[in-house]
Task: structure prediction
Amino acid sequence: MPEKPWVGMGTPCNETDKLLFAASTEIRIRDGQKIYFCESAWVAARRPKDIAPDLYSMSRRIASCMRPCQTTSGSGISQLAQTLACNIYSNLELWLALRETSLSPGTEETIRWKWTANGEYTAASAYRAQFLGSVKTDLHLLIWKPWAPPKVWTSDRLATRGCPRNDVCPLCRTEPETAHHLLVTCRFTKRVWSLIAEWLHYQQLHPSLSGITRSVSEWWHIMGELPNVSKKAVKSLLLLENWEIWKERNARTFDRREASTISLVGKIKEEARAWGIAGARHLASFVGR
Ligand SMILES: [Zn+2]
Result:
């Protein structure tokens, strides 16, 4: 019986923690002994699994436990580069990076923490890093505190932080993914609002004005001023809708799972009722009328 009861329980670390760690560290590859091929951010401060996700999913079981030294020595980097060339378009970036990688046997990798000047990890910098790239808004008054959504990272911001991101919106697969597109002008998001407007018999929720806005803040302002309805109810609904859109975006990006607009609105209805039971009175009377 170990002295400490948590011995052997593993590190409590979910996919979000891993993403934050990968985005926060820069690994200089040396002998390839200490890091994992797909999971470590060793290719220009990015993880191979983010550069070539299809390659990663194909070879997840093998590649995730391989170390670069096992793939880049022995059979040689060029052989791996040839394998990757079979799927050259999606793996082009990783292929080019590997061609320029060489190992230095006998020298250890270095890991640099990006959020401090000296490259050393501190808890305070890790805490601050969680808010980098979040959408800034002056609409704190709009947000009804008990239901404030988690921070929203979108592609335009994630791109500057080295996080995995989508160039094209995963909801409509047409437009570039930005915060404004994802939460306001995407045709998927607009369809969700149309269905919500029908459900609540309140046509003002129809996203007819979304096209004239240039930012998420502007859209929230417009939604916060809708007539003949409780502002608090609309604010809660807005947060709930944004939250479900963000979760859908993540399910498509990370888990390759897709929900239709109808099933997403089904979830929003369920959640709205649950919030009502939990104490969101204005929302409860809005959805129950
Ligand atoms: Zn879209």
Remarks:
- Residues 15-125 form one domain.
- The longest helix spans residues 231-254.
- The beta strands are 25-28, 110-113.
